[in-house]
Amino acid sequence: MSGADTEAITMPSAAGGAPHVVIIGAGVIGACIATYLQQQGARITLIDRQTPGDDGAASFGNAGSLSSASVVPTPAPGMLRKVPGWLLKEHGPLTIRWSYLPKLLPWLAGFIRAGGDAGHQRRAAAALAALHAPTFEFHSRLARDAGVPELLAPSAYLHVYGSEESYTSAAREWTIRREHGANFEVLDRDALHEAEPDLAPHYVKGVRIKDQGRTLNPGRLVRAYVERVVANGGVLLRAEATDIEASAGRVSAVRTGDGTVEGDAFVLSAGAFSRRLTDRLGLGLPLDTERGYHVTCPEPGITVAHTVMEADCKFVANPMAMGVRFAGMVEMAGVDAPANPRRAEVIRRLARRMYPELRLEGATQWMGHRPSMPDGLPVIGPSPRHENLWLAFGHGHTGMVAGPMTGRIVAGMITGPMPNIDVRPFRADRF
Asked: Which residues fall within 8 angstroms of residue 338, CB to CB, at 6 or more apart?
């Protein structure tokens, strides 16, 4: 059923007033859900184990791109053939901590199935296009209402290629983006280096997507959203959600290290850490984490004129308020393993190869968790086993992009009105 024919399940409070919605997770997804629910009159309690937008949060370390053209899911035809080469290269975009492999196998099996389904890439792209299309417009409204419009900027999104072969191999992806409305132009070597003068000379081709956006400080942006929710009467509880109390198909409360929080409706949007709670509820969802790294250079000594995707090594360079951020890499190692400093060092080397005059003095590095589902689509919607619990996680690399529409969808499901979007691809019972 599409958003047009989906009715919200209105959740009145026990006293007949505004429903009290308890949201586990105050990252970009939880912050957007809280904002839209509050606009519909709900009372909000946000629970998070850390300060929203703090340096331990995934939203803090985001690459900052707000690209509506980010519609190509990770599992794709031909992807599996590239994985061995990536794993064998120290600077490859993917690494697996082999001690984690036994736990990862179910996720990998789902990833392989999705990539082997010839029609999945196009179906998933259509779903992501609907989810991502209004990202800059919606974020602009949210940022304005939160008093931080200066944290957003329009930006072209430039993909750069080190060989003609690499560019040609991405033809299917560009066809899919065009089908979903991306407005882009192909740049030859001369045009590419005119557009991005400090880029290394070995790049021979670029594709510039027009009419995109970026955030200049993703952590501060999310913190501003949560601060506005609190200023409007919402509650932020700094605590770790350790369990969800449920019986007879209904959730009654969230247990935390500081006590129990009761409510009328509940949302689980704790990113990669949602898995601990879904497992306790017996939902069996194959959520895992694609651990990502970034390096931020406060005095880069170069100009980055676009949001730039290094297409061969799969990382992004983005100018931000605190310098130029280089973000990317995928490490499959679970949520408990310590950061691997070698992955950040790889980004440093690749960043210098990308921009030879880059100054790395004073650079900071970070590791965080991208919540990832094996088919490349998030889970957004009601729990299959609980009538007053909604799920919103698994957005992978595009949580910041998808945050506003995810917020509107979940708010619409709980209090109405529903946005006109087909939510079936995101249902939890698809696995």
From this structure: none
